[in-house]
């Protein structure tokens, strides 16, 4: 089992920044590929960024490339998402998730590859 708790969401103006954190407990955090997903109002959940268990490989959705940065601190069992130049279309509930992966460099991008999910944190970007 892995327990995930997100924090850091809130209301920010367009162009602003936020840092989301995801604290993990339970199963070995360092063996998880970790992803940030988001679900905008009325839309399906989508993959935003993913980082491999090793921390070396990453995946970024085109919509956030150059603006968002994912990182992880395996010593602190914590995942981060630094979001800059936020846009109103970034408004969503953001979820962190853990995928048990067979290799340390895997970056799964599909939600159904992730077994453990946090409760989500709301990010609202005003125009």
Quick description:
By secondary structure, this protein is mainly β. 0% of the residues lie in helices and 51% in strands.
Give the topology string: H per helix, E per strand: EEEEEEEEEEE
**Helical residue percent band:** under 10%
- Please tell me what the overall shape is: globular
State the secondary-structure class. mainly beta
| Gyration radius, rounded | 13 Å
Individual helix count: 0
Characterise this structure.
0% of the residues lie in helices and 51% in strands. It has strands at 2-7, 10-13, 18-26, 32-39, 46-51, 58-60, 68-73, 78-83, 92-100, 116-117, 121-126. The strands form two sheets. Strands 2, 4, 5, 6, 9, 10 and 11 form a seven-stranded mixed beta sheet that branches. Strand 4 (32-39) and strand 5 (46-51) form a beta hairpin. The model has no long low-confidence stretch (mean pLDDT 95).
Name the features:
single chain, about 130 residues, mainly beta, seven-stranded mixed beta sheet, globular
Question: Secondary structure elements and their pairing?
Answer:
Layout: E1 2-7, E2 10-13, E3 18-26, E4 32-39, E5 46-51, E6 58-60, E7 68-73, E8 78-83, E9 92-100, E10 116-117, E11 121-126
């Amino acid at each position: 089992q892995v327990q995930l708790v997100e924090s850091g969401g809130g209301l920010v103006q367009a162009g602003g920044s936020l840092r989301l954190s995801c604290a993990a407990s339970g199963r070995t955090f360092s063996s998880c590929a970790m992803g940030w997903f988001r679900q905008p109002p009325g839309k399906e959940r989508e993959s935003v960024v993913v980082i491999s268990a090793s921390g070396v490989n990453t995946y970024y959705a085109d919509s956030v490339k150059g603006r968002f940065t994912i990182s992880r601190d395996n010593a602190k069992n914590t995942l981060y998402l630094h979001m800059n130049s936020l846009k109103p279309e970034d408004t969503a509930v953001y979820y962190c998730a853990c995928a048990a992966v067979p290799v340390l460099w895997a970056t799964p991008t599909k939600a159904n590859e992730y077994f453990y999910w946090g409760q989500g944190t709301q990010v609202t970007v005003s125009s």
